[in-house]
Design goal:
Strand content: 5-15%
Bound molecules: zinc ion
Strand order of the largest sheet: 4-3-5
CATH class: Mainly Alpha
Number of domains: 1
Largest sheet: 3 strands, mixed
Helix content: 40-55%
CATH architecture: Orthogonal Bundle
Number of helices: 6
Shape: globular
CATH topology: Arc Repressor Mutant, subunit A
Structural class: alpha+beta
Order of helices and strands: HHHHEEEEHEH
Radius of gyration: 20 Å
Number of strands: 5
Amino acid sequence: MWPRMDSRANILEQANAKLTEYLTQNQMRKTPERYEILRIAVQTKGLFTVDKMAEIMSQEASFQVSRATIFNVLELLNNAQIIVKHTLGRAAQYECHMDKRPLICLICEQCGKTEKMEKQELEKTLSAIKSRKMSIRTQILYLSGTCRKCEAALRKKKKGNGRLKSDAKPK
Ligand SMILES: [Zn+2]
């Protein structure tokens, strides 16, 4: 029901246009840092943190920017509705998201890792939700639990403890 993602180049073009429009409207400067961070945000697959962005920039950007600048630009891109900010994990995570499509995220309560889930049925239900109390801008559904990696680690730990004590059987 949503047009499938077009190519990254196309998305970057749309994102650039959206940023230019936002900066013009708000009388802000069109600095190369802003466009470079946007380019990397669009090209990064999945979610990223400020640290991850700094790491990518140190490898491939033609100039260096501070973490504070990265943070400020990401906030700006969030306000411009080009990226979405997730704040449930230990560190805020961001992702490029420009269409109206609802987001479904899985969050691990142990390690804070956030992953995206694609469920068309759920997306359809979410997008149909309206509120009289506010006009909804972004629809994000968070599902929390324990990721497989943490689950395996917990099981291993439990097993280790079990050996020290009596061999109590799980119910
Ligand atoms: Zn985990």
